[in-house]
Amino acid sequence: MDTIYETIGTNEEKNRQVFAQAGEILRSGGLVAFPTETVYGLGGNALDEEAAAKIYAAKGRPSDNPLIVHIADIEALKVLCSKIPDSAFKLAERFWPGPLTMILKKSAVVPHTTTGGLDTVAIRMPDHPVALDLIRSSGVYVAAPSANLSGRPSPTRAEHVRQDMEGRIDMILDGGSVNIGIESTIIDLTETVPVILRPGYITREMLESVLGTVEIDKAVALGKQSDAPPKAPGMKYRHYAPKGDMVIVEGKNPDKVMECINRMARDKMQNGIRTGILATDETKACYHADCVISVGNRESEISISSHLFDVLRQFDDLGVEYIISESFSRKNVGYAIMNRLLKAAGGKIVNTDESEAER
Ligand code: AMP
Ligand code: MG
Fold first, then answer.
1. What are the structural domains, with CATH classification, of the chain?
2. Ligand 1: residues whose CB is within 6 Å?
3. Which of 2, 12, 162, 167 is most buried, by the most CB atoms less than 10 A from its CB?
């Protein structure tokens, strides 16, 4: 299949034509990738089982991993859900459009193909003009997981979508780099106490300021061991992963952490392994490896979240076989950043304080 590639720019007339074409593709069961404020999404008609099946096929995504349905209008909740608690309206008022996905009981119109066989549905109103214009011009509810091949880092630029999806989908809309760079926070509102199934830019504290107590799914809580499977099926899969092996190094003393990272890099390179270091603006100059890339500035969480997946893809492009990453504070958005990094590293983390204690 030839993939149509269009850039949304400042020419209003051209944009109108592109949205009309993209809307037509979605209405007729095709797939269109588009930017949101979190990551690029791979959209298809959420109420069309065949379109949903095409999304799983294009991504190579397991069919038990449900899709998030994107809407442009709060009224859509009443069509897609069978029971809407007050908490959903409160959260929508505060955080929509925005990077928050709510899990609610689905109505009969939503096919099980879209929900991975579940009786609940994930819904989000994205805060990006291209996403909202696309949903409105298509007139359909748009099921859209991240537009990457399953397991790879989520796409934060149209070029990433092209790398993974060229020839597999009908159209890519290029709306530039995304702003947030990590996927939406997912909150399950079907339980008595709301539960965060995936951390994101909307933090637990922000949610608690609206809802009171909010829990974090045990299988997702950082630093806790759990045998329970995660409640968001997608969180159980290897994810966000670069091609190279990855390890995170943490510790109280930043100098020790740097020393440890440099030592590990030297060992790997001596063994002929192409090694990369994921650094920050503050530390980049202190490292020695085949590739040292800064993910952002420690003073700005969003500079880190917005570049994280791009940097992981850069290591792939540079043929890096082993990546050593700094760690980040788990406060605020740092919690979600560490969640993605730990997934990318398959949970491998070295603590310099512990290795110190062992000596
Ligand atoms: P993605 O769109 O690629 O960011 O992935 C969507 C995420 O939402 C995956 O982790 C899914 O498992 C999760 N998800 C979607 N629908 C549901 C649902 N009904 N219940 C729990 N998790 C869901
Ligand atoms: Mg994804």
1. 4-221 (3.90.870.10), 245-351 (3.40.50.11030)
2. 65-66, 68, 103, 115, 118, 120-122, 145-146, 183, 186, 197-198, 231-235
3. 162
